[in-house]
Design a protein that fits this description.
The structure holds two protein chains of two kinds.
Chain A: H1 6-9, H2 12-22, E1 27-33, H3 39-51, E2 57-60, H4 71-82, H5 87-97, E3 103-107, H6 109-114, H7 119-126, E4 128-133, H8 142-149, E5 154-159, H9 165-173, E6 179-182, H10 198-208, E7 213-216, H11 222-229, E8 234-237, H12 239-247, H13 249-265
Parallel strand pairs in A: 1-2, 1-8, 2-3, 3-4, 4-5, 5-6, 6-7, 7-8
Helix pairs in contact in A: 3-5, 3-13, 5-7, 11-13, 12-13
Chain B: H1 4-7, E1 8-9, E2 12-16, H2 22-35, H3 39-53, E3 59-61, H4 63-69, E4 72-77, H5 87-100, E5 105-110, H6 114-126, E6 129-135, H7 136-141, H8 143-151, E7 155-159, H9 166-179, E8 184-186, H10 197-205, H11 207-219, E9 226-230, H12 235-241, E10 251-259, H13 270-273, E11 275-279, E12 281-286, H14 311-318, E13 322-328, H15 329-343, H16 349-359, E14 370-375, H17 380-387
Parallel strand pairs in B: 4-14, 5-6, 5-8, 6-7, 9-10, 9-14, 10-13
Antiparallel strand pairs in B: 1-2, 2-12, 3-4, 11-12
Helix pairs in contact in B: 3-5, 5-6, 5-10, 6-8, 10-12, 11-12, 15-16
Classes of the chains: A alpha/beta, B alpha/beta.
């Protein structure tokens, strides 16, 4: 595959956030698990999310042992693997979808290692702009972190409520695109209320980074999305979208539109 | 900040965990490194190991098994520990550390249930809340251990995701830890997981080899030619090996579970048939498919039924310091009966893999060459399961 797009793709996500900022808008970042509810509908879902107001989309490569995920994403991952979803198929889907909005590949480390040394270039060529790895914290594996950091994709790093300020700066220095702030302790999944500490954590993180800050984990509906949009640059919605996608493409699109409206009104 | 050397065994090990856990792991490492050189902690640990666990564990000669094999076999009797396995060496150490750190809520994963029982035991002893994650399939196979844990006040949570065995119980325990990280201490049961666990659990289990090395010099008048232990996650083996790693003439042999056969796809031989990958926080040999998805493990023994292995074993394999072999379900059942009949010692099915391997190696040793076998646990927990197989005939 040609890799002519490589040099520009690493800036796609930051450019997107800059455009949103100029327009006074916050980003809506839905997550779906590739291959859920089935392989055919993954491309339809991507397009439906894009048309319903997504600014960036996180597409999850399913893993057999998703230790950072709650029941909804676990179940979707297991189902997707049973249907034969893998890295190669994921890239085919993305290449065919020809998305306008930037895509972030969301994965655990092991499937990315297994995909081989060319995996990052292949992902960029297929149309991905960023990569987020749940189990590769800053400083854990300098060699692999350098492989990703020097590669063609934005390297989205995670910050947790437990992360001290000094480490936030370190994470920011080793990431690009945006910083993904985990809103609360725990695994992914829907919650009725947002953590009371969240505004303070966002404030600490803003002091540590110039990158856009997106908040995820536990954002389940428009009301919470609006609350997050008042303090962050973007809102990640995972389990709620995955659950809606399990019902139908239309249900996922409808939820995305509602989230979009709530965020824009916030 | 930790040094790379402490984090890794060669290329293996590391801390591949969600960001949320990093401060907790830093805190754990600091607490452990302070405790392990603190005379007060060491004294407290020694007292518990002596007066509660019943250490030192005996080194038994095995005259009839030795005759059968044609070597001088010695048995390091971890089966004689309180709760019947080596697992308690580690849980005593970690629970003392948890207390030192002020943690009141203890979680653990378990496969065969031995680690769950050992954790429930020390939690009862110190009055700590205890939650044990156990695969639904393992709860069925090891119902006696489930009862023992509940009897001692632990809550046993049935894990119904994935393969419903140790791998999934471990994943679920990590999820609990991520959620309750502020007040919860996770007692990992083997030399697996993110740093510092593999090193810490090895240190707590190293008493096996430290005692055995001195006992061998005392009783046999020399070091063993070969040290043999079964390997699932690998804690009894690392514990047995550690004292001998520097003794270059001592062979170290780890016995993995070949299940229904190495080519059947139903086995737990991570070192023999896996390739390096990342699971549960560390890089090590792993049973996985070409896409990096973890391949379900299989063994007749729930304690060996794990697709990963401790990273230090991967290092010992790649450096050639230890040799890793495998024994299948059927041969393990033979080993189970062999040690029972010849020595009056019913070994755990896990241990039975190592018994069977030694029995298969006739001619490898001369009659007076000492072989040290770590009897990691007693087989009472397996009697119900094995009796259903009608191995004795009618």
């Amino acid at each position: 595959m040609a890799s002519g797009s490589v040099t520009i793709s690493s800036d796609t996500i930051e450019r997107r956030f800059a455009e949103l900022k100029a327009a006074g808008k916050r980003a809506l970042v839905p997550y779906i698990t590739a291959g859920h509810p089935d392989i055919e509908r993954t491309a339809e879902l991507l397009l439906a999310l894009q048309e319903s107001g997504a600014d960036v989309i996180e597409l999850g490569l399913p893993f057999s042992d998703p230790m950072a995920d709650g029941p909804v994403i676990q179940a979707s991952s297991q189902r997707a693997l049973e249907l034969g979803m893998n890295f190669t198929r994921l890239l085919e889907i993305v290449a065919r979808a020809k998305m306008r909005v930037p895509l972030v590949l969301f994965s655990y480390l092991n499937p990315i290692i297994a995909a081989g040394q060319n995996a990052l270039v292949q992902a960029a060529d297929a149309g991905f702009s960023g990569l987020l790895i749940t189990d590769l914290p800053v400083g854990s594996d300098p060699e692999r972190e350098a492989w990703i950091g020097e590669g063609p994709l934005s390297f989205i790093r995670l910050v947790a409520p437990t992360t001290p300020a000094a480490r936030m700066r370190e994470i920011s220095a080793h990431g690009s695109g945006f910083v993904y702030l985990i809103s609360r302790l725990g695994v992914t999944g829907m919650q009725d209320t947002m953590s009371a500490d969240l505004p303070a954590t966002v404030k600490r993180l803003r002091e540590a980074t110039a990158l856009p800050v997106c908040v995820g984990f536990g954002v389940s509906g428009p009301e919470q999305a609006a609350a997050v949009a008042r303090i962050a640059d973007g809102v990640v919605v995972g389990s709620a979208i995955v659950r809606a996608a399990g019902e139908s493409v239309e249900a996922a699109a409808k939820l995305t539109s509602a989230l979009r409206a709530a965020i824009d009104a916030a | 900040m930790t040094t790379a050397q402490q984090d890794r065994f060669g290329a293996f090990g590391g801390r591949y965990v969600p960001e949320t856990l990093i401060p907790a792991i830093d805190e754990l490492e600091r607490a452990y490194d302070a405790a392990r050189v603190d005379p007060a902690f060491r004294h407290e640990l020694e007292q518990m190991l002596t007066t509660y666990v019943g250490r030192p564990s005996a080194l038994s000669d095995a005259p009839r098994f030795s005759e059968h094999v044609g070597a001088q076999v010695w048995l390091k009797r971890e089966d004689l520990n309180h709760t019947g396995a080596h697992k308690i060496n580690n849980t005593v150490g970690q629970v003392l550390l948890a207390r030192r750190m002020g943690k009141k809520r203890i979680i653990a994963e378990t496969g065969a249930g031995q680690h769950g029982v050992a954790t429930a035991t020390v939690c009862a002893r110190f009055g700590l809340e205890c939650i044990v994650y156990m695969g639904e399939e393992d709860m069925r196979r090891q119902s006696l251990n489930v009862f023992r844990m509940r009897l001692m006040g632990a809550k046993v949570v049935s894990v119904t995701s994935g393969t419903r065995t140790l791998k999934d119980a471990t994943t679920e325990a990590i999820r609990d830890w991520v959620t309750n990280v502020n007040d919860t201490y996770y007692i990992i049961g083997s030399v697996v997981g993110p740093a510092p666990y593999p090193r810490m659990v090895r240190d707590f289990q190293a008493i096996i080899g430290n005692e055995a090395r001195a006992q061998m010099l005392d009783r046999a008048g020399r070091l063993p030619k070969t040290v043999v232990a079964c390997v699932g996650g690998g804690s009894n083996a690392m514990g047995a090996f550690h004292a001998f790693v520097g003794d270059k003439d001592v062979e170290l042999v780890g016995v993995e579970a070949a299940g229904e056969g190495l080519d059947s796809g139903h086995h737990s031989a991570s070192l023999t048939r896996g390739r390096p990958g990342v699971l549960h926080g560390s890089l090590s040999y792993l049973l996985q498919d070409e896409n990096g998805q973890v391949h379900p493990a299989h063994s007749i023994s729930a304690g060996l039924d794990y697709p990963g292995v401790g990273p230090e074993h991967s290092y010992l394999k790649d450096t050639g310091r230890a040799e890793y072999v495998s024994v299948g379900d059927r041969d393990a059942l033979e080993g189970f009966q062999l040690l029972s009949r010849l020595e009056g010692i019913i070994p755990a099915l896990e241990t039975a893999h190592a018994v069977s391997w030694i029995a298969s190696q006739k001619g490898r040793w001369t009659r007076d060459e000492p072989v040290l076998l770590c009897v990691s646990g007693r087989g009472d927990k397996d009697v119900a399961q094995v009796s259903e197989m009608n191995i004795l005939g009618t």
